[in-house]
Amino acid sequence: MTDRVPVLQIGDVLLVSIQVDLEDRTVLDLQDDLSKRIVDTGARGVVIDISALEIVDSFVGRMLATVAAISRVLGAETVVVGMRPAVAITLVELGLTLGGVRTALNLEAGLAALRRAVHTERPDRA
Amino acid sequence: MTEDRGAQRLVELLADHEDDFVTQWVATVGESLSGRLSNAELERELRDLYAALRSGLASGALASREDGFAEIRSLLVELSRNRARQGFTPTETAISVFALKQVLEPSLTGSAKDIRAYLQLSRLLDELGLLTAEAYARTREEIISSQADQLLELSTPVVKLWDGVVAVPLVGTLDSARTQVVMERLLQALIDYNSTQAIIDITGVPAVDTQVAQHLLKTVVAARMMGADCVISGIRPQIAQTIVALGIEFGDIPTKGTLADALRHALDTIERDKRLAENRGSLL
């Protein structure tokens, strides 16, 4: 049985803190869980904390982009927080730019970025 | 057999005139170094060499590679290293060895045995002289590589410019190795100073070509992935022309002429972000 990544709800925000090494199975489970939770809770924002992640491969890089895209389709903004320098360098060397994924230094900055995104978007939707 | 006799004769010769030879040797070498090394120090060095040479020859060895000359080899390498650090030329160092031939010349009788002995010694000293040149080159290379490392350390400081703003003033050409260092330092600084804005100042970069631009872009993308915005500043008119002529695209990365402009841009962005993110009661 593989570890599942917990999805925590805080108000309008879902917090996904990745604390385990990501296997392909875990990643797919996470996508399932997260999209279900967004629909169930009507969350407006998703924060993915990867500060504990030391090793990434292109699959994880693509996962982040996919999760962001899924959330956007479901009406939630995604922000990836706490990326380590080594991880950023690896992703750049892999040629992944995570274009379209919002990023922030830490959880606090991530929530601020979400607020920004939601507030700037609201007039468009009205 | 003949070789043995040559060595024998050399040992005798060197033993008989030890003090004479060393004094003359010191005088000759001292002259070539034109007083940049004290005579006492020179005499100590050369006396050590002389002793090592004698004991090497006494062991019956004649080629510099043989075990008997291990001592003189290490002495010479040490001497050559010191000379290299003190700024002597390789010629001056090698002459220190070759001068012994000159010193020996007057005491030769001209007999066949003496000539053979002298040639023998001459060959040996040639090899030892080359050894010093080799050690000299190696030392210089070590010095150069350690200086390159120091330069890498020195030339990539990341400074905190304002609350939430860090800057990297780049000086010198940007190659892959330096980009790597700059990237690592900058990304670490973003975390250390909790900065959302990074300024890369290229005032000190002499030329920007596609390769340098590629390195800059990589750094910016990495910083963005961590959640910080980057501004490139210090683009001189000349560089701006080159960038356009080469068709380099910086995309949506803001570029500014001066560091001051970049700082203003960064502060404006921080201010705007803060306003937009103002908490309106709920979490979002």
Spell out the key features of this protein.
heterodimer, A: Transcription Regulator spoIIAA, 5-stranded mixed sheet, 4 helices, B: 284 residues, Globin-like, Transcription Regulator spoIIAA, 2 domains, 10 helices, 8% strand, Anti-sigma factor antagonist (chain A)
Describe the protein.
The complex is a heterodimer of chains A (126) and B (284). With 126 residues, chain A is of the alpha/beta class. Chain A has a single domain, classed as STAS domain (Transcription Regulator spoIIAA). Chain A is built from four helices and five strands, in the order ββαβαβαβα. Chain A has a five-stranded mixed sheet, sandwiched between helices. The longest helix of chain A is centred in the last third of the chain and has 19 residues. Chain B is rod-shaped, with a radius of gyration of 32 Å. By secondary structure, chain B is of the alpha/beta class. Chain B folds into two domains: 147 residues, Orthogonal Bundle (Globin-like); 118 residues, Transcription Regulator spoIIAA, CATH 3.30.750. Chain B is built from ten helices and four strands, in the order ααααααββαβαβαα. At the A-B interface, β4, α3, β5 and α4 of A face α7, α8 and α10 of B. Chain A: It comes from Streptomyces albidoflavus. Chain A: This is Anti-sigma factor antagonist. Chain A: Pfam families: STAS (PF01740). Chain B: This is Anti-sigma factor antagonist. Chain B: Keywords: Phosphoprotein.
Radius of gyration of chain B: 32 Å
- Uncertain regions of chain A: pLDDT < 50 for 5+ in a row? none
User: What class, by secondary structure content of chain A?
Assistant: alpha/beta
User: How would the global form of chain A be characterised?
Assistant: globular
- The CATH topology of chain A is Transcription Regulator spoIIAA
Measured by DSSP, the beta-strand proportion of chain A falls in: 15-25%
Average pLDDT metric of chain A: 85
Number of helices of chain B: 10
Low-confidence stretches of chain B: none
**N-to-C SSE string of chain B, H for helix and E for strand:** HHHHHHEEHEHEHH
Q: Judging from the principal axes of the Cα atoms, what is the shape of chain B?
A: rod-shaped
Q: Strand order within the widest sheet of chain B? A: 1-2-3-4
Please estimate the helix content of chain A.
Answer: 40-55%
**How many structural domains in the coordinates of chain B?**
2
Please give the largest β-sheet of chain A.
5 strands, mixed
